[in-house]
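User: Hi! I have a protein structure encoded as tokens and I'd like to know what sequence might fold into it. I'm fairly new to this, so please keep things simple.
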């Protein structure tokens, strides 16, 4: 009986670990997409708009907060909506 319970805990722990491994990879890629879009945005704006770039970077949601939001697998909520709309044209979906 004890070993059955321990085996169940091990299986649940293993499945949770796989889930978090996948979620971590996707969260990392989404944060890199947003950072790359901010970088492309920074290359196209004037030097006088550096305050907007700093604002975009400071409004970015933390990696841990994004990682532990289990139901959100996208990158649209990493920035506030108005900031996301600003960099949306600079996001590249897939690299070829």
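Assistant: Happy to help. Inverse folding works backwards from shape to sequence: for each of the 96 positions I chose a residue that suits the local structure. Here it is:
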């Amino acid at each position: 009986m004890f070993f059955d319970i321990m085996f169940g805990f091990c299986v649940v722990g293993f499945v949770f670990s796989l889930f978090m491994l996948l979620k971590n990879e996707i969260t990392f890629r989404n944060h890199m997409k947003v950072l790359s879009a901010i970088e492309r945005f920074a290359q196209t704006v004037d030097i006088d708009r550096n305050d907007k770039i700093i604002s975009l970077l400071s409004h970015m949601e933390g990696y841990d907060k994004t990682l532990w939001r289990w139901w959100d697998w996208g990158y649209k909520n990493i920035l506030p909506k108005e900031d996301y709309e600003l960099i949306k044209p600079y996001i590249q979906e897939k690299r070829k």
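A useful reference point when you look it over: The mean pLDDT is 87. Feel free to ask if any position seems puzzling.
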